[in-house]
Amino acid sequence: MTGRPRPAIAALPAYRPGRSAAAAEADHGIVGAVKLASNEAPFVPLPSVAGAISAGIEQVNLYPDHGAVELRSDLAAHLGVDVEQVTVGAGSAGLLQQILLSYVEPGDEVAMCWPSFEAYPLFALLVEAEQVRVPLRDETFDLPALAAAVTERTKVAFVTNPNNPTGTVVGTDEIVTFLETVPSTCLVVLDEAYSEFVTDPGVVDSTPLISTYPNLVVTRTFSKAHGLAALRVGYTVGNPEVIAMIDRTLVPFAVNSLAQRAARASLAAIDEMRVRVADVVTERTRVTAALRSAGWTIPEPQGNFVWLPLGDLAADVGAALERRGIVARAFPEVGIRVTTSDAAANDRFVAALDDAANDLGIRPT
Ligand code: PMP
Q1: Residue ranges around ligand 1 (CB below 6 Å)
Q2: Which residues are CB-contacts of 157 (< 8 A; sequence separation ≥ 6)?
Q3: For ligand 1, what atom is nearest to the CA of residue 221?
Q4: What is the pLDDT of residues 147-182, one digit of tens each?
Q5: Whole-model pTM?
Q6: In the chain, where does the domain assigned CATH 3.90.1150.10 lie?
Q7: What is the CATH number of domain 47-268?
Q8: 202 C-alpha vs ligand 1 centroid, how far in Å?
Q9: In the CATH hierarchy, which fold is given to the domain comprising 17-44+271-360?
């Protein structure tokens, strides 16, 4: 082996992004495949956002503002927090990695419910943490069990709301109980990558909680509802001391100037963004109803995706969907996650699932 990589890194599995439509087309000799595997938005950028990106092209010879002062200030105003209580990173994934780099040492524990976002275990391995995984209950984060698993060695506990891949939520009351239960030595990372899509009235804005619970950090992203996944920009809200520690591990200039401009423009166009989100939610409701009336069991989806808890059928059904041009995300032995896209793609998915089940001799479960 060339050089001497850290054993933890040499052993690290690669992050598995959603398969592209092109890869599925090549594999199966088909055309017109649609990717519903990465929970991306189906929209082109809003005109004002596209304009902000174009205007920024003139300045790509210059480094961006490392401190993202203007974007942070806009976010603080938008969220009703102080500017010291918010920071930005290269996607919320970048921020999640920074949080572990800033807080977790080898041998410390990182707790989560499972299955959840696949990057958590990778980032835990990166910092050589011990992972404590608590099973979901009814496809949902089991906060009492997660609280019981937190020990004095636990530096970070992830709460994913809505959860990826199951799409379920826990109520704000339950989160408050969790925060009251876990010791303040444990950072509670509330990952709200999909919060804009939540319609459950039991989930309310969590950012006011940061003033009561200094160990709470909320992460959100411009990748999903704002439709800026390619630009890599996310944000974290929390107590200023924690925010400053997270900032220390930001790669210099990691949030590029086009991303900063686009994010600011998207915040300025928040009402237009909300209309788009409402369209996705309408589609989510329609897809869920169609799947349930066909006999499938679907936990209540609160992100921009639906979850089919198919257990050991997941891999076969995922492959059968792919042969029909629907590239979903199959978690072998667990289930299939399918992004809610535009009506045409969603209809194709519902029809392909029906066809795949018939072909495989599976009855909806
Ligand atoms: N958290 C969750 C739960 C996610 O599903 C994702 C993206 N799949 C992320 C964080 C990271 O998204 P990004 O880095 O694009 O903000």
Answers
A1: 39, 91-93, 117, 160, 164, 191, 193, 221, 223, 229, 234
A2: 110, 111, 112, 146, 150, 182, 186, 187, 188, 189
A3: 16
A4: 999 999 999 999 999 999 999 999 999 999 999 999
A5: 0.97
A6: 17-44+271-360
A7: 3.40.640.10
A8: 22
A9: Aspartate Aminotransferase, domain 1 (3.90.1150)
